[in-house]
Amino acid sequence: MKALIVALVLASSSALGPAREAYQSGDLAGARTALEALLQPLQLPQRADEAEAHLLLAATCHAQEDLPRAEQEVVEGLALDADAKLDPLVYPPDFIAFVERVNVLRRERITQRATERRPPVLLPPAPTIQSASKGWYLVPFGVGHLQHGRTTKGTVLAVTQGTTFAVSAISLGTALALRGSDGRYSANDAPTARKLNVSYLVGAYAFAALYSYGVLDGLLSNPEPLAPRSAPR
């Protein structure tokens, strides 16, 4: 009575129901036809159902004494579900022993088929690598080099250009501040103003030279892509 209840429950669930019912009732030809129709082409989207279908087809072929086909279906079923448990109320003892024997003797083949049937791993999309425009090299203070990931040279240019620019600007500003209302320097301020003007010119020329070097170095260098930027959270 218990076996009949189990058979009815199995037969009433999923697309395998008619095939299970045919196998349980002894209609091996009908069960085999139904199972092969479900497997070729595959009509079972769930791996568990497909594994059960292969094992049920193996049991059918085993009962028909088609042992090579039964072994093939056992391999396919165990490749899909290595932990498949056969209900002794549904499958006869000799078939359960057959499955255990195939599981031991064909372990390498089962592992190979399991690898072949494993769902593909979906990798995250590769990060987009953004290339900075060479136009950044026209910006002073090493900005272009920093934008292109050339940190060391960018830092050196930022410090040297910044220093020469500051010296030139401060010298010019101080020299202009020393001028009188008539635009001339007093006798006392003239020596200092003369030194400030020299400092201003030296700083300006040094800044211009460093800026020109930075632009040429950047524009003539090979483009270097920026490091991938992580997506904002």
TrEMBL record:
It comes from Corallococcus sicarius. The chain crosses the membrane at residues 156-178, 198-216. Keywords: Membrane, Transmembrane, Transmembrane helix. It comes from the Bacteria. This is Tetratricopeptide repeat protein.
